[in-house]
Structure formats: structure tokens, C-alpha cells
Amino acid sequence: MAGPDPTASAFPKRPPPLISKYEYFIAGIYVTVYGLKELIPATTQGRKVACIWLLHPRLQTHKCMEPLAASIIHEWNEKVLKSTHDRRDKVGLIAASFDQRNHGSRGVDPMANEPWTKGNKNHARDMFSIYHGTALDVSSILPLLPAYIFGPQPTVSVNEAFWTISHNFVLGVSLGGHAAWHCLMHEPRITAAIIIVGCPDFTRLMADRAMYSRLDSWVAADGLGPGARFLGSAHFPSGLMDAVQQADPVGMMLGEPAMRTALLNVNTLYGAGTNQAMRDVMVQKMRKYFGGKSILNLSGKADKMVPYRCSETFILWLKEALNPDGPFAFGGKNMREKLRPEDRSRFTLKEVIGFRGFFADGGLKLRDIQYEGVGHEVTPKMMREVHKFVAEELDKVQKGLKDKREAEFKAEMTKLEADIGETWVDRLPGGKM
Hints:
By secondary structure, the chain is an alpha/beta fold.
């Protein structure tokens, strides 16, 4: 049964222009590709294409992502047509989307998509397995996509064998936003992620829902406080804890101690460690999962379904890892005094010595925006930020192509000069260009 669609509010005045779409059956999954017909050969001589993978919300299907695909692709194509970049460096843009596991054409058990309050006792394990599985599906389909959409094939939309997908981004909304975090960390070929009302901390999100659902595993009992029995209970079994620690951002980066802070009334920031060895391990993990990547995280301050507070701890942790001049400073026991007054009651800090800015030179770009009065939805302001972010990332790709082409040309000229014993400029009439 479909619920409210968070994407429905993205274009309240008028929908974006129609976009071409073609469906392919890849790795057992129906995949819809948008924008193939709109690729502009006259302006993309280098035949480089970026693909943005669109992951839909819970209780929806891939079809709700079509307006987002149309808006993003048309916006970029207009920019490409006006661009003064060399045609060899211009990049085309397409989008791909498919139904998440147990949704739409892949639906098996409707109850598995429901929360605890709707009678699904397995809500936590069902939800995690569905969206983590979707991230695995992206990795499975991603290398196969060019074989289906480019080249001389009967169903192909662009009969051009020389196009290549050079870069991959991901955009996810709600459940798709959770999956987008996993795509970013687990798939090295995805270099940028747009997360809209999604969360990188599954344990904290489930703890929040367990509290408001008043699950018997959450309420105080047997002399234990609220939440003390939740992790490891039937609602969040130990096997799920292991899976989260291996696949979810907070579990992977900070481990079980950070997961258990979800049961406390304060957020706990874990740093890079109190010694150089721990710090080196954390830098290696950051470089593996986040090095050179870009994140746009968009949240509604009035979101009750996926509250920003469930993401805030990890987002702040990332910000401090990137910012050597942030509000936290070295100081051990006096660290809490370095916090803003309004944060002191909400945050404690552990293992923070040597933490501030430890990944400042790691190439990770993070933009985090919360919107006042916005709930669990995609808004026009969010879409404007999405357009801006996509353009910046693709401009960066184009600059990289230009720099590579110029470096290759310079290397060829240097080799030629060495072969003929004089500079190629010297061979021009008058020795001048």
C-alpha cells in the first residue's frame, strides 16, 4: 500500500519538461534510463557521460523519480549548450532508476515494508535488508549498464558505440537516501551522493522509532532504564547489530560503542582516537570510504519520519574531521567547555584528543543543509540545491578531462621534441606560435 510520496512536493507550480525514457532488463531487474535521447553529440565530442542513480522512497516506485530525473538532466543540458568548454571536455548526463527490493515490480510481502506501528514486528531487519540490498543492486547493475544502452543493438536508444559512462553519482530520497549512503561508501565508482531526508545512522533512527512506538523492548523494566534492552532484543537482534556494523556508515566507521550511544539521551562524538595508531586506522578508513568524494545532505527541520537529530551526530563528526578550525579544540577534560552553550547539554565528547581536522586534506566535500519548517519531503529549494551541486560536480569532471587532455598533449609534444632534437615551436616559421 502506497503512503505519502515525499517527492510530490518537489515541483508544486509545474512539472519539468518530459524526458525520454527506455526500460532495460538487467541482472534480473527492470531498469529505466532517462535522458538518452537528449544527449547532445554536437557538444560532447569526447563522448563522456555521467549517470546519476535515483533511489526512491519507501512505499513508492521508481516512477516517482522521473520528474527529478527530467529536472536535473534538462538543467544540465541547458548549461552544456551555453558552456564555452571545449567540446572534447563536455560531459553528457543520464539517470537510471529501478524499484527498490520488495517495491513495485519487485514486491513480494507488503507487510515487510511497514513499520512496527503497522504490525510489522520485523521492521528493523526488513528495512535494513531492503535498502542495503538496493545498494548492492546498484553495484551489480552499474558496470553492465553501458552494454545495454550504447552500441549497435536493436533496443538501444543511442546508436553510438563510443559513448562511455565515466562518472556515477547517486541521489536518494528517504529510504533511497539511506541506500545512497551505502552506495557512496561501498561502491568506489560512485563519487558523489545527494541524500534527501535520509540517515547514515540506522541504529539511532531505529532507537528513535522504538521510543516513540513504545516497544516493550524499549520501555524500562527489570530495573533497567528505557532503551537498555533494545539492542539484542527481538526488535533489533544481535545478528542485525553485526550486519549494521559491517554495512552502515556509523557502524563501519565508529563501531558498536557509537551504535550503543543511540540508547542515551545525549549524542556522543567519537574522535580519531587518543593515540597515533588509532588515528592512522581512522584516516585509512576515511580514505577508503570517503576519500575524494562529495556529499550533499538535505534535511527538513520538521521531519518526524527521519528526524535530523538521528543524522546529526555522524554529520557533526564528519564536519569536525574535515575542519581543522572547528569549534572543538585540544584540551581533554575541558572539551565540553569549547562547545557552543546551546550544545553543551546535548553532546558529550570521548576520545577527542587529536581529532579535530584529522581528514582535512582527504578530498571529502560535505554540504549539509536543514530547512526550517520542512517535513519529510522534497521541496523546490532542495531541488535548486540539487541542480547547483550536480553542476559543480560535473564542472569538476569537465575540468579534470581538460587537465588530462592538456597534460597528454604536453607529454606528446615533449616526446616529439626529444625525438627530433628541437622544440616544435622552433619548427614553426619564425620560431613563433
